Amino acid sequence: MASHTEIGESLWRIADHLRGDYEKNDNEDVILPFTLLRRLDCVLEKTRDKVRETEKQVADKVEPDVLKQLLTNAAGVPFFNRSRFSFPELLKDPANIKDNFGAFLDGFSDNIKEILYNFSGGEEKGLAPIYETLARKNLLYLITKEFASESLDLHPDVVTNHEMGLIYEYLIRKFKEGAAAGEQYTPRDVVQLLVQLVFADVKETLTKSKGTLVALYDPAVGTGGMVTVAKEYLTQDWKLDPSNVFIYGQELREKTYAICKADALMKGDDASRIKRGNTLSDDQLVGQQFNFMMANPEFGTDWKKIEDTIRKEAERGSDGRFGAGLPDVGDAFFLFLQHMISKMTPVDKGGSVIGIVANGSPLFNGDAGSGWSDIRKWIITNDWLDAIVALPEDMFYNTNIATYLWIVRNNKSDDRRGKITLINGNQDRFRTLMRRNLGKKRVELTPATLAELVHIYRDGEPVPKLAQTFDLEDFGYTRVTVERPLRLRFEVDDEHLAAFQQSGFFTAFVQTKKVGDKAQEDIRKGEEKQKALLVALTKAKQLSPCGDDRAFMQAIHAALPFKITDALIKALRTSFGTTDETADKVLLKPLDKDYEHDTAGADPGAWYATDSDLRDEERIPLKTDIAAYFAKEVLPYAPDAWMDRSKDKVGYEISFTRYFYEYQPPRALKDILADLEALDDEADQLQAELRA
Predict the structure, then answer these.
(1) Which of 163, 186, 208, 341 could form an SS bridge with 296, CB 3.0 to 4.6 Å?
(2) Is residue 357 within 8 Å of residue 405, measured between CB atoms?
(3) Per-residue DSSP letters for 337-365?
(4) Residue 477 bridge partners (DSSP)
(5) How far does Cα 530 stand from its chain's mean position?
(6) Contact 510/650 with Cβ under 8 angstroms?
(7) Residue closest to 107 by CA, chosen among 182, 52, 38
(8) Smallest Cα–Cα separation from 293: which of 340, 235, 237?
(9) 663: Cβ–Cβ under 8 A, 6 or more apart, which residues?
(10) Could you report the average pLDDT of every consecutive run of 10 residues in the chain (692 residues)?
(11) How many beta carbons lie within 10 A of that of residue 206, not counting itself?
(12) Model confidence pLDDT, tens digit, residues 576-622
């Protein structure tokens, strides 16, 4: 029996017939819906005659709704086709292939028609543009014949639903191989690992009663791979009753939504639970809660097009889905995770477990006070983050970046509360090279690897070089602002005086909005102030250069016939002051008579101006005493520094590199030289062989 890859490759090769008539990017508009139609046709094959006979017997005797129900019952699946055509039967009349193909499509039940509409952007004309274009290009009969081939048997007895899902994903991946890194489809080994992690410790709970109901949800459902694998795991491996396991999902893209919904119908699931639309801006399952949730949102998906809607939702705070904060508009991962958290079942009703795929950005992007950090803080301090598993690189079809699986839950067991486990699966021991690369996917997880990673997670205990367990506070830090005093040296010379006279502060003395005599009076007073200021500055030349801000300002003030203002002090510092680490500290109020230099115990921030160029920040772990850290790590190198604690911000980040980094000493120089000499000898030998 052919594998799903071989069948997918056969379907992919049918697109060769479209070459020249279709752009390469448009091939999927034909291949994907025809693959679905062929699958539907195969599913209905055994009951086709029964459906036709049922309609023949009762068509004129019952109401339309009753007829549809009878035809559905006759089909044995939640859909039917009442036309007189099947794929093989369409080939019997090549001259009328276009009209007959239209009748074949029109014979499907409404739920299938709704699915088919999504292959043409949700338009009511459904697949008409596709098959009419094929007919116009004299390709409709040829393409139908290719899909009707006996060698392409997609009957459920030959190709299981699971394998059919893999075929869809194979085709979609092939069509998307040139897409951006974030537009990845989740490999089944990653899905298997995520599913087993989500259900790692709930087997006893779910299997102790035959009537246990389970709701599975994926807010970025795609073709339905995650919820499908999860349901199969529960019903086939754990023998749960399939009728007690319900799948839900929402998908943005019409074509993948159509495939997912059709797949649900063919498996006997309630396809109405698969919704279409943007999950973040238009949640189609408002108010519903789920026991288990899994998702792989596209890496780096921006949300700029829906920014207004998202920000309005965030303004609702805890009453909305995004009250913890907003990440940058270039990455929607934390929006999806917050959305899923909002749908967790309360703990007193069993709680929920979430498994979600991420790249590295959500671990550490954003400093304290940013949306990224605030969301991490919210998740961690609520004790929802249970574990993060780092995957080997080269696991995905369209990207080889580092990826991680987050396990988030509100029902941690007593022994796991207040703890977070990090598992480093990005090691050679977990990397099994594939015999043949699939896009950028070069590595796969074997069943043994899956079992080991799940065991490490379930156990929750530290494993040297593999797993570490941390307290919640271990990921938090306080960002403390460290200030240094401003120190200025004043120079009053002709160059500085000329520049000062061109400054906005100096020229403002002779500017007025008044008119007539009042304006002239203001200008006269302004000119007098200018002259007085220049006289005072000329007298201050004798202090120049001056490294004492207080002495300089007092000298200017003593020579002026008017009160010196804060604006004038600022202008003088800007025009005549230059930073100099040997100068005295600049006082906030240099003319304050009550000032006592270096007052014991005084807060430096209350007395001294700060030098913004010397301002620094320290990220101090939450478990570390801030004052002790400052005394040990800062004051020995900057004795005049102080902390502005009013600017403190608490942040959270997760760094796998910090926790699992192992120092590798550089190779000995003699070994490197030996290798270079060996390469030289090899090069000489090759050249000699070429000359021979």
Answers:
(1) 186
(2) yes
(3) HHHHHTTBPPGGGT--EEEEEEESHHHH-
(4) 621, 651
(5) 60
(6) no
(7) 52
(8) 340
(9) none
(10) 82 89 83 91 93 89 90 93 93 94 92 85 67 90 93 88 81 66 69 96 88 94 91 93 95 89 87 94 96 92 93 94 95 97 95 96 94 97 97 82 94 96 92 82 90 95 93 97 96 91 90 82 89 91 88 91 91 94 91 62 80 96 97 95 95 91 78 85 83 72
(11) 19
(12) 999 999 999 999 888 876 665 555 456 788 889 999 999 999 999 99
Q: How far is CA 130 from CA 97, 141, 258, 509, in A?
A: 14, 13, 15, 77
Tell me the CATH class for 4-162. mainly alpha
Cα 352 from Cα 294, distance rounded (Å): 11
Structure tokens at 112: 């299938």
- Looking up tokens 């995520």, which residue turns up? 194
Tokens of 384: 């929802």
Chain segment 502-537, per-residue pLDDT in tens: 999 999 888 887 778 888 888 889 899 999 999 999
Domain 183-459+467-477, architecture per CATH: 3-Layer(aba) Sandwich (3.40)
DSSP 3-state assignment of 587? strand
Instruction: Identify whether the C-beta of residue 11 lies closer than 8 Å to the C-beta of residue 146.
Output: no
Give CA 663 to chain center in angstroms. 30
What span, in angstroms and rounded, lies between the C-alpha atoms of 363 and 371?
13
Residues 6+ apart with CB under 8 A from 442: 394, 400, 433, 434
Mean pLDDT over the full length of the chain: 89
**Residue 596, burial from CB neighbour count under 10 angstroms (0-12, 13-18, 19+):** exposed
Residues, the chain, total?
692
- Spatial contact of 411 and 375, defined as CB atoms under 8 Å apart: no
Q: DSSP characters for 288-310?
A: --BSEEEE-PPTT---GGGHHHH
Cβ atoms within 10 A of the Cβ of 80, count? 28
- Are 432 and 399 contacting, i.e. CB atoms less than 8 angstroms apart? no
Structural tokens at position 588: 């906030």
